[in-house]
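Need Ferredoxin's 3D structure for a figure. Predict it.
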Amino acid sequence: MRPLGPARLTAGLDRFQRLDLAAHVRVHPPLPRLGRDDLLDLAERVDLRGRGGAGFPFARKARAAVTAAARSGAAPVIVVNGSEGEPPSAKDRMLLARAPHLVLDGAVLAAAAFGAEEIVIGVAAGSPGEASVPAALDERELPCPARTVCVPERFVSGESSALIRGVNGLPVHPAAVKSRAAEGGTGGVRRRPTLLSNAETWAQLAVAARLGPGPYAAVGTDAEPGTLLLTVNRPGTGPLVVEAPFGTALGDVLDACRLRPGDGVLVGGYHGAWLDPADAVGAPLSRTGLAELGGTLGAGAIVALPPATCPLGEVARVAAWLAGESAGQCGPCRRGLPDAAEALGALAAGTGGPTALEDVRQALGGAQGGGACSHPDGTARFVLSALDVFARDVEAHLGGPGCGRPVLDVLPLPPAEGARLEVDWSRCTGHGLCGVLAPGLVRLGPHGYPASTTVPVAPWQEHDARRAVNQCPALALRMRRPGRSPGRLR
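Structure prediction for Ferredoxin:
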C-alpha cells in the first residue's frame, strides 16, 4: 500500500490492517447526508467516472437510473461491482478486504439519496471480500437491505451485465443482447432500475462527499481531478496498490515501486495497451494523457516487462488465456480470439511461417467491432499494441530462431483449472473427424493431423470436446483436468 500524494482511499491503512467500523470512524470524518440533487451535482462537479475500466460518467448513469425509477415507480437497486476477475488488478479486492466501509459509504449515500430498495455487493468467490463485506454490513446501520453475491473468479465475471446476471441467479457471463442497467437490470421478472459501479468508484464518491468539490479537486488535473488507485505488478512478489493523483507520471510510479520500464509497460491490464519504454517514463496517468500516446488507463493495472523474458511468449500466454476466458456466445469469441491466440503462439514458437504475423492481425481484425461485449476489442487492443511495441522481437521470431530469451511467466495468470484436450500420437491416424466435431478446438494441419498436441478447453467448448473424444475412431484423444490423470470422457 503506497500513496504518491494525499492518502484518501488508502487513509489509515498504514496503521490498520483492516478498517473495521471503529477504526473507520477514527480515520474518516462523519459522512454527510446528501439529497438526490446534491449528490448528482457533486458527482458532476468532480466529474466522477467509473474506475472499472470504461470511465463512464457516474452522474449520467445515476440520472438515468433515477429517471427510470421515477417513470416505472420501482425503487432502484445499488450494485457494487467488486468481482475484479483480471489477474493483474487487485485494487478493488484490496478496498473490500481492508477498507470495506469506505466502499459501503458511497453505496449508502446513493441508496439514501435515491430511495433504493436494496444494496448488492458482488465479490469474487474465494476472495477476501467474501468474508470482509458481510462482516462490515453486520457492523453498521443501512438505509435498506443489503446482501453479498459471490460470482466465479473469471475475467468476464467483472463485466457489468455478467454481474447483473449473477445477481439475478443466472449464469455469470455477459448478456448476449446489450441493454442499459439503469432501465432495469436486477430483480428477475420484476426488473428494477439499477445503478452499478465498481468498488473504487463508490469509495471515491464517499471521499468527494466528505471533502466537497473544491478540496477534492486540489490534486489531479483540471480535466480529471482527484486520485486513482493503481495495481503495480512486480515479478516474483505480490502486487502493490498505489494511490496517486491523476496526471502523475508513470515513471514516478515505477520509481516508487523500484521498477524500470524494461522492454515495455502494460497499462490498463489485459484489455489495456502496451507503451514503448521511451514513452512510458513521462506518460501521464490520466485518460486523456494516455489516449494521446495510444494507450488507455483501463482499471489501472500496470506491468513493466523486464528484458530477461521473451515479450512475444508472454503476450501469447495471456492471449491464449483470454481466448479461453470468453463467454463463447458470439463469432469473435468463438473463432476470432482462438484463431488469433493460435497464430500468435505459432509466431512466438517460430513455427508460423512467413505469414504468421499477418495471420494474427487478420484474426484480430475479424474479432473487432462485432462482439456481444467488449472482450474481443479489449483483447485485440492488448495484442495489437504488443505487436507494435515489440516489433523488433516480432521480426526476430519471423526471420530466425527467435529472440533467444525464455518465457519467465512475468505476466500474472491464475493457475490452470480448465480441461485440456490432448492428442496421443501413437494412436492418431489423421482421420480428421475431430476437426469436424470440434472446429473451434482442433485445427488440422496440411496432412490432416491436429496442428497442436495440447489444446486448452474453455467451459463453453466442453460439449464439442466430449464429442470429439468419444467419437475419435482411433481413440487418440484424451481429456486432462488439473490434478487428474488423462482419460476419455464418457
